[in-house]
Design goal:
Helix 1 packs antiparallel against helix 2, helix 3 crosses helix 4 and helix 12 crosses helix 13. The strands form 2 sheets. This protein has a 7-stranded mixed beta sheet with strand order 7-8-9-10-11-13-12, with helices on both faces. The chain starts with 11 loop residues before the first helix and ends with a strand. The protein is of the alpha+beta class and 435 residues long. It folds into 3 domains: 104 residues, no CATH class; 147 residues, no CATH class; 143 residues, Aminopeptidase (3-Layer(aba) Sandwich), CATH 3.40.630.30. The chain is 36% helix and 19% strand.
Length: 435
Amino acid sequence: MGSWNVSITGNDTAADLKSEYTVAFYYYPTEQALQAIDHYVRENGFSEQDAPEWCDYYYSLADFMHSKGILTEEVKKTALDMIDNGFGLEIWEEAGEKTLLARQKALQKFREKLVSAQPAPKKIKPNVYTEDIFEVGDIVAVQLQTAGKTYSENDIKPLTDEEFAAADGKYIVMQKIETHASWSSAIVPQVKDHWVIFRLLDGIYDTVPELKDIDMQKNAIVQAGSNISPLFYCESSLFYFKRRKYKVLGNDKTDIQLYQNIHHDGISFGVERPWKNPDSLFLSSMGKEFVKRKHSGSLEELKEKYAALCYWHGIPYRLSDTEWESERDKQKDALFADLERIFAAGGTFYEFNIVQTVGMVSVLNRRIDHLYAKAIYNNSKLVNALLQYVLQQTDEDLCMDVPRERGALCRQCREEGGVQTDGAPEGFERFCWKR
């Protein structure tokens, strides 16, 4: 029994079953729902022979039904008999007298609740997105609604307040790629939590556009989390789309399969906060290009780009501000000295840009070094893309020494074909690529 307190619902069983209760009573009449729930719990090993688990189940069921105004006399009587007979108290006795008394007090309070008048029956609806909206391939225009909001994505793509406000009422276009069911009820499998996955197209339109005016090959670049792709997932509910005056422009399944295994993050239409809102994320995704290139600027420009990517790995947070800044300056000086050495020796630096620099890496004498990615991308496919790009630029063998504590980077080196070999300094792992 996984209990974290003495209350009726303070246990794993009650928490796990609550969503199933909701679905069962949403989908079936009360008596049929009770039969379905009883069948489910018994199929999963619950029985009166395991008194503590049965109490967690049955008390949470009675509590749920009472709170929704649908408690039947049979369920109430059974729960009251269990309380009055001390059913399942043995395990609480083992926990000590203090805990036992606390549990008995909680049960008496629960008993008082059960014999009190229950509220009028309430509407029961699962807290999931039960509908599957749009068809795969549907091309949908939705309205931007920036009025009264704050632009929150200046770190990804700078916009002035005036530029953000001016987008209000304009339209963007997205294409449905697929629906993902993040959860399915065990009691009523047809009830699922749907989330729809869209491809965001690059372009902002003053009015609902015609399909012929949309460049279907031009993707936006969504940076809603740790991934960089044209895809995002959102709530599968027409409520949000109706509010944004949506219009289905057509359907095209031609290249759908190209986008069905791409990593993506969410843009929630239901999250409207000053520090995060969907309109900011949509606008920050527009008019951008993912540029991979050799760095051709000065040493000072190179230092600035690296400094902007650094998050000063491993500095303890417990240090005072002065101590933290001193440690940061030591790391910064060491990094800049190494960059000066590589630059002076004719090393090559590669950079990835999406509006601003998001990744850097150096190569000198067949050695990959100083691979930095903007902090939110350190565990993303951006690092893999940096490695892939560097490996494509030369036919020579390459190697890279990675600090052991950077486990994610070690994993990414393996994912890109790096083979661990001997010869690394203490505390490092060496990965080599034979050409």
